[in-house]
Design brief:
Largest interface: A-B, 61 and 81 residues
Shape of chain A: globular
Oligomer: heterodimer
Structural class of chain A: alpha+beta
Distance between the termini of chain B: 69 Å
Largest sheet of chain B: 7 strands, antiparallel
Strand content of chain A: 25-35%
CATH topology of one domain in chain A: Dna Topoisomerase Vi A Subunit, Chain: A, domain 2
Helix content of chain B: 25-40%
Radius of gyration of chain A: 26 Å
Helix content of chain A: 25-40%
CATH architecture of one domain in chain A: 3-Layer(aba) Sandwich
Number of strands of chain B: 20
Shape of chain B: globular
Largest sheet of chain A: 9 strands, mixed
Number of helices of chain A: 19
Chain lengths: ~700, ~575
């Protein structure tokens, strides 16, 4: 039986929808409606003729959480800490990664000092109570927070990872007595030691919580009133999904919700095409993102820094490693006081959007420039759903850039696109060259509405010889969502020596993780039998700090298959760091349980790997409008080159296309430069051999 | 590898790939070392550096992030080995260990490990790193001991010893090291991590040479040096020619607490050449607050890098415009057998003083002084139950100076420490018999100014078992100074509270016994202010008050801001 599901990704500019219905993919793309994103979702549903009543599952990715942090538009948040430690969150780790820069900036706290309040309570590192918590004090603090108009409160007590009893007590009281407060307890988010990173992660959750929760509940209510009765899942940064209810409590784990989905999809394409080293490249309206994908697996980091390592906010949860730059189709071109032209990071977003959208945008954007270069089709944008106004775009670019800079319109347009390409090249370099990976040994997999339009130029810039534009690039992030398993990582700190641990203690700790998992699965109406449970322990040689997660056969192996665990650790240590110290004392640091509920085989995986035949035309108006050739500016603003214009749904597997050419499809446009060669794969993906300048091989 | 070979033309893409790859290799080495190290001085404090060194001892690349003061001297250590063995005297599988004070000029804990890198049968470069071992024997446990007065008190010296020769370990040397240090398991674990990092770096470089050929790689390295030099020279050329001087002080050498030490530097700018002159620096001292030549060189290089190209990767070319005059016999170029235990303590002040000298030449670019010491604590003892020996070390941040563009940053590590991190309280309490009672910002510590100095921190430790602590404070006599009319920040301080004596302030003192219940509080300095306090925006003063960064008394005294008159001001 087919499970009908739909994925909707809401970006800064576009709302993308992909559905898998009766074994077929449906899709739609529409402008994001920032004031009420549910409207955009409704439009996309209508465009795709999706009847919510027939769906079993709704998957969703959104940039709302991360944008709330980056724009610092979160809730008025307070932080409760152990007495003596309210400044830990501001002191941080004291480090200055920009070691030689006198203008360095430390992370700016999301909670001002006046809203960081101390509680008389204290545990020691074993979790024993030294100073008991006083409910009356919590009650009084709650009153104080209410009086200050606080909407959300983060609680992070010392050693709560070892024993959450005080956080639980304070949390229960506040949740009961002040139900309007959004309460986040550190141990519920992250049960690992290191008070600063745990505080920051907890505060991030508190800071975005009220806004995200309101947004998700609103969306849910909207879908319910439209007759949707299935389950709702939200994409999370670790490359899996979670229930909507869970996302409302733990929105911090959806920080990289949107971008991750696309990279999961790119990983599947890489695996399908046998690409060992790939760079996933995703360009939307507001930003461009890159991720290194080895053997189909996007690189995962144990947390990251929102806003960059040097001055960003640490978020200590597993996340797909993505490098992002502020360049997208909507990025605004501007001149500084010295007359230098820049592009981004300000984006016109969806509202008002680029000038050519004719929705009141006055600032020329990358999309406007692409239109003026002939790279976009004014009559076929969003599959003909929108007509672009080239005259308005030209006028805006003239006024803001071309005339002041003494350039022709086309020249200025080419300059704007080139500057955006250079900025994006930095992101791609960061995941390749900077990691010691020669881009000449990689393949780029490009998607996002604007990705296929810029990818070939980037490949030339960085000398990536091969480019793949997967099917449905404009909806690819949403498609990736359909591939994401339900996944949750459970961790808790348990420090002891391997071989000397009390098995009863370990069994109890793993049992606790398992029962948490069962509760979560139950809450999400999933059966534990369908779930895959992966147990692991973080181990290190005693004296080391950093640990390596070592997979375990089961919860019992840690105490009952000690030699096997030891050997596995030694081998991993050797592989990772080039040396191992067999026989040394091994310390256990954290216990882990990763629970995932894989999707059934008949799901959207099939779609990427199913051979295609010629698809029927989607719209006769588009066919009528189809021009065979269009003048496109490539390298020289003075000399536009006639380029073949093709309609992707009509292309046959095995078909060869020589650049210069433009391949249009409903939600995206692929640009081939002169000399580039494209071939349509048996599965319908476009595989492009990039024509690189002479002498690049050395 | 001799990178002065005639540069040949290189494809710009290859140039970019090679240059970035070299930096990436240094970072990869650093990551491997940091993640598999055994002591917090490496994995938290990041007291190490990794890099590739050519056959003339020049820096091909070095990791970013760790300790800026390790800019100078991997090459010096490697050159000593080249002189001893000759380039023909290395074999694949050799691993050399080196911490000799007379050559390296640093405390003996800083141990250099390196391996030769071969291409087509000959040595072309060395992969090297230096890392802070938790212990090297001698009088000192942890850091901050001020009792030593010659290098022989400070531990075991290893001068360019092949601890592995053609892949075979020298068990005699190994045994001798293990028997003469306090935490052999940790230090030798660190050694293995260092060795693995070198092998990784050497392997990566070999791959690069095989792929692009030696001539191309050499040309790329040479060009990256030239590019760095060009950038640096352009910045120096923009500084008005002239001779600039400044003089400040350090408190003492740790043995004679009443004798301050002179820190005097002169800078000569001529065209694109930049000379730092240490001729009038304090003579070398009986206590351990000395460094060898490389200590002074490191400070000069850090100051130069800050001034010229703070954001670019580090290589030999960055420092070509810099000349150093550093006569032997001063505290930044001490003659053997001077004690070097506190080798780095003078360096933040030396750098601050170089910057101060240049303030008139670079208006608006030089901030007020920062907290000025390396800021840390070091406890040691034996666990009551297990009898296991431990050492607890932590590094504290402090205030940085106000600057033209705004207030100074609070709670940040010194100018000699970059991506160096404090130790989480939870981690300290998991491993060591202490309870930390608070870790907070130090209100009122920032120097008054139009742009206020950043705040220091306060951290209070209470001992749960008998323990021992070393205290090593600096820059009390000359607190972090203001600039352009700004006031000074509060000085570093430590308060000892024991069961058997009155509370007392401590500055430099070693092996202080703590009984269970005894406590010590460290308060780090605030940064100096920038511009006169009277020019500070009143709303900023009010906001500081609201957030508790300053007290009402301080607002009144330093800013003439009275809370009684409801925010009014004369």
């Amino acid at each position: 039986m087919n499970r009908d599901l739909i994925g909707v990704d809401i970006g800064g500019t576009f709302t993308d929808l992909v559905g898998y219905r009766n074994g077929e993919i449906v899709l739609a793309k529409t402008l994001t409606t920032p004031a009420n994103p549910a409207l955009g979702v409704a439009t996309a549903l209508e465009l795709s003729n999706t009847r919510l009543t027939e769906l079993q599952e709704f998957l969703h990715g959104s940039t709302i959480a991360i944008n709330t942090v980056l724009e610092r538009k979160g809730a008025r948040t307070a932080l409760l800490t152990t007495r003596g430690f309210r400044d830990v969150y501001e002191i941080g780790r004291g480090n200055r990664p920009e070691a030689f820069d006198l203008e360095f900036q430390r992370p700016r706290p999301l909670v001002a000092r006046e809203l960081r309040l101390e509680v008389d309570e204290r545990l020691n590192a074993r979790g024993e109570i030294l100073v008991p918590i006083d409910p009356q004090q919590i009650e009084a603090l709650g009153q104080q927070l209410s009086a200050h108009g606080v909407e959300s409160v983060a609680i992070c007590f010392l050693h709560a990872y070892a024993n959450p009893i005080h956080e639980q007590a304070a949390g229960a009281l506040l949740r009961e007595r002040f139900p309007q407060l959004f309460v986040t307890l550190s141990h519920e988010i992250l049960r690992e030691y290191r008070e600063y990173e745990r505080s920051s992660t907890t505060v991030l959750n508190a800071y975005v919580g009220p806004r995200v929760k309101q947004y998700l509940r609103h969306l849910q209510a909207d879908l319910r009133t439209r007759g949707f009765a299935g389950s709702m899942h939200i994409m999370r940064s670790n490359g899996g999904s979670m229930s909507l209810a869970h996302a409302c409590e733990e929105p911090v784990s959806m920080m990289e919700s949107g971008p991750v989905a696309g990279m999961i999809g790119a990983g599947e394409v890489a695996r399908l095409l046998g690409i060992g080293q790939a760079i996933g490249f995703d360009m939307g309206g507001t930003t461009a993102k890159a991720t290194l994908i080895i053997d189909g697996v996007p690189a995962i980091e144990e947390g990251y820094y929102i806003g960059g390592y040097a001055s960003g906010q640490p978020m200590q949860l597993p996340v797909v490693a993505i490098v992002e730059v502020g360049a997208g189709g909507g990025s605004i071109a501007w001149r500084d006081v010295a007359g230098q032209v820049h592009v981004g990071p300000q984006s016109a977003g969806a509202d008002p959007g680029p000038v050519c959208y004719g929705r009141g945008g006055a600032a020329a954007t990358v999309t406007d420039a692409n239109l003026l270069l002939g790279r976009l089709n004014a009559n076929r944008f969003l599959g003909g759903g929108m007509t672009l106004d080239a005259a308005a775009a030209a006028q805006a670019l003239d006024t803001t850039i071309a005339q002041p800079a003494g350039l022709g319109t086309t020249e200025a347009a080419l300059g704007v696109v080139t500057i955006a390409d250079t900025a994006m090249a930095l992101a791609v370099r960061a995941v390749s060259v900077r990691k010691g990976i020669d881009p000449r040994d990689t393949t780029m997999i490009a998607f996002g509405g604007a990705g296929p339009l810029h990818a070939a130029a980037l490949c030339k810039e960085i000398h990536i010889p091969r480019l793949v534009i997967p099917r449905m690039p404009g909806n690819f992030s949403a498609l990736g969502m359909l591939l994401a398993p339900w996944r949750q990582d459970f961790v808790r700190t348990l420090i002891g020596v391997l071989g000397r641990l009390d098995p009863a203690w370990v069994d109890a700790a793993f049992g606790e993780l398992r029962s948490q998992a069962e509760q979560q699965l139950h809450a999400d109406r999933l059966a534990i039998d369908a779930a895959r449970l992966d147990y692991a322990a973080d181990l290190r040689y005693r004296g080391q700090e950093h640990s390596i997660p070592v997979p375990l056969d089961g919860p019992g192996s840690l105490c009952r298959a000690i030699q096997q665990v030891r050997d596995a650790f030694d081998a991993l240590h050797e592989r990772r760091y080039g040396h191992a110290n067999a026989g040394e004392v091994i310390e256990v640091v954290n216990l882990r349980l990763t629970v995932s509920v894989p999707r059934a085989a008949e799901s959207a995986y099939q779609f990427l790997g199913t051979p295609v035949t010629r698809e029927p035309l989607r719209s006769t108006t588009i066919a009528d409008d189809q021009a065979q050739f269009r003048n496109v500016v490539f390298a020289d603003a003075e000399c536009p080159v006639p380029a073949r214009v093709l309609w992707r749904p009509e292309l046959q597997p095995g078909e060869l296309i020589a650049g210069p050419a433009i391949i249009e499809e409903p939600n995206s446009t692929t640009l081939l430069f002169p000399g580039d060669q494209a071939r349509i794969s048996v599965h319908g993906h476009i595989e492009i051999t990039i024509h690189l300048p002479e002498g690049v091989s050395q | 590898m001799n990178a002065t070979a005639t540069p040949r033309k290189v494809n710009p893409i290859t140039q970019e790939v090679v240059t970035h790859s070299l930096v990436a290799y240094a970072e990869e080495m650093a990551l491997a070392l940091c993640k598999s190290a055994y002591n917090m001085m490496i994995y938290e404090v990041r007291d190490f550096c990794c890099g590739l060194i050519d056959t003339q001892g020049r820096m091909i690349c070095q990791n970013e992030g760790g300790l800026p003061i390790f800019l100078a001297d991997l090459g010096i250590a490697v050159l000593d080995g080249i002189e001893r063995y000759g380039l023909d005297g290395f074999n694949p599988g050799d691993v050399i260990i080196m911490n000799h004070a007379g050559v390296c000029g640093q405390h003996l804990n800083n141990v250099v490990v390196y391996t030769p890198c071969f291409h087509q049968g000959k040595v072309v470069a060395f992969a090297a790193n230096r890392a802070h071992w938790v212990d090297v024997g001698g009088l000192r446990t942890g850091f901050g001991n001020v009792q030593t007065y010659e290098i022989f008190h400070e531990g075991i010296q290893m001068r360019s010893i092949k601890i592995f020769e053609a892949g075979k370990r020298n068990d005699g040397v190994w045994q001798m090291i293990a028997d003469n240090i306090r935490f052999p398991q940790a230090s030798l674990g660190d050694f293995r991590a260092q060795m693995a990092a070198c092998q990784l770096g050497a392997r990566r470089l070999t791959e690069l040479l095989q792929r692009y050929g030696e001539a191309t790689v050499l040309a790329c390295i040479e060009r990256s040096w030239d590019q760095a030099e060009t950038q640096a020279r352009a910045v120096v050329a923009a500084i008005p020619d002239g001779r600039y001087s400044a003089e400040t002080q350090l408190d003492s050498d740790g043995r004679r607490l009443n004798i301050p030490l002179r820190v005097k530097v002169s800078i000569e700018v001529t065209g694109s050449d930049f000379t730092i002159d240490y001729s009038e620096m304090n003579e070398q001292v009986p206590g351990p607050l000395n460094s060898g030549y490389s200590g002074g060189l490191s400070a000069a290089r850090v100051a130069f890098k800050i001034l010229t190209m703070p954001r670019a990767p580090v290589n030999e070319g960055c420092f070509r415009p810099l000349r150093l005059i550093s006569p032997a016999g001063t505290m930044v170029n001490a003659r053997p057998p001077a004690a070097l235990g506190l080798w780095s303590i003078a360096l933040p002040t030396v750098i601050d003083t170089v910057l101060r000298a240049l303030a008139p030449a670079l208006p608006g670019r030089i901030p007020a002084a920062h907290k000025g010491d390396m800021g840390g604590c070091s406890f040691y003892g034996q666990r009551a139950q297990s009898g296991e020996r431990y050492v607890l070390m932590n590094i504290f941040g402090g205030g940085w100076g106000g600057r033209a563009q705004g207030d100074g940053e609070s709670a940040a590590v010194s100018i000699c420490q970059g991506d160096v991190r404090n130790t989480p309280v939870e981690l300290q309490e998991i491993h060591y018999p202490f309870l930390v009672e608070h870790h907070r910002l130090r209100a009122d510590s920032g120097g008054p100014g139009e742009h206020r100095g950043g705040l220091g921190v306060e951290i209070k430790y209470r001992a749960l078992e008998p323990s021992t602590v070393n205290v090593m404070l600096e820059r009390i006599l000359v607190p972090p100074w203001g600039i352009a009319g700004g006031g000074s920040g509060q000085s570093n301080a430590a308060l000892l509270q024991t069961h058997d004596a009155a509370d007392r302030a401590v500055t430099k003192e070693s092996n202080i016994a703590l009984a269970p219940g005894d406590a010590i509080t460290f308060s780090t300095a605030g940064g100096g202010g920038y511009g006169p306090a009277s020019a500070r925006d009143r709303t900023a003063v009010k906001e500081d008050l609201r957030q508790g960064y300053i007290s009402p008394q301080h607002a009144e005294q330093a800013y003439g801001y009275s809370t009684d008159s409801n925010g009014g001001t004369p």
